[in-house]
Amino acid sequence: MKKLGTAVAVIAAAGVAVSGCSSSESEASSSDGVVKAAIITSGPVNDLGWNQGMVEGAEKLEAEGLIDLTVVQQDSGATSEQIAQIVTDLAEDGHNLIVGHSFNYGEPIKGVIADYPDVMFAYAGGFGDITANLADYSQPFYEASFLSGILAGDLTESGILAGTAGFEIPVCKAQIESFADGARLSYKGPGEIQLRPSYIGGWSDAAAQTLEAVNALVDQGADQFTTCGVDAATIEGAKQRGVGVAGYAMDQTPLAPENVVSSIVWNLDEVLRAMVADVEAGNVDPAKYYDVDFAEGGVDVAVNPAFADKVSPETMALFEEYREKIKSGEFEVEYKGGA
């Protein structure tokens, strides 16, 4: 795997870092015939979440000999113009699968795709936003969030659940709503489950605002959280205030072993595997919406063993029952993300 620095650093050194490959490496595929794939992250590659999950998924394919991998670690200060330049440099360097792993990357990538019609581009829109050779990939977190909600419903004392997210986009809204729906299956009262979402207005660059939101929600009685895209700060806030939280994108138990009840685990190797197969087959335009759901192994839930004796046996049985029903297709989690 080639790892290039932050987005801004890559721009400054594009002539060296991106163009410095041998002529054999600059073909559409590397010399051994595998797909040349590039991942542009939207934060640190060791965040134990959104970005690390993508990189580790890509590394699995590289270990299988399916791709020749380049990772560009972007920092939160990169502009749309800088992202567009990075994408251009990667395409010029012969990468034929370029994945911008952020909702925010869609527009800058759209400005580049027409110049490279044989390259498959993809970004994390999560709502089927496909254009020519620009693919989108789903984030079916709502299915796993429903299961995390079943556990939260058993553990909540107040009946007040909260969800934090960067923005009120369909993916995040659906995840938060499903969390409450799952909780309604296991909650015994008093009263009914209340849900309080908070949309921060930023992602990893909004840690202070996220902590502020978590504190406000706990002050309002929330004692179980789910989080979409602002996970590190939400988990830190839950840890500081002693409340429960569901991890996001990877098993985030290590971030707060006494607070992370369960985690949504996103198996991105399965998403990338489908993309690579299409690149190999020349199926680049029209691009696809890669929707690898729970039943297909795209997502799952990891339960923190520390909560094994805190969740009632009846609720754990309910959790496993619905897990199997979702996998088999017998039960379909209602999607409440809107358009």
Provide keyphrases for this structure.
single chain; alpha/beta; Rossmann fold; seven-stranded parallel β-sheet; six-stranded mixed β-sheet; 13 strands; 38% helix
Structure in words:
The chain contains eleven helices and 13 strands. It has 339 residues and is α/β, with parallel strands linked by helices. It has two domains: 2-137 and 268-290, 3-Layer(aba) Sandwich (Rossmann fold); 141-266 and 308-328, Rossmann fold (3-Layer(aba) Sandwich). The strands form two sheets. The protein has a seven-stranded parallel β-sheet, with helices on both faces. It is globular. 52% of the residues are buried. InterPro entries: ABC-Purine-Binding, PnrA-like. Pfam families: Bmp. This is Purine-binding protein BAB2_0673. Residues 1-19 form the signal peptide.
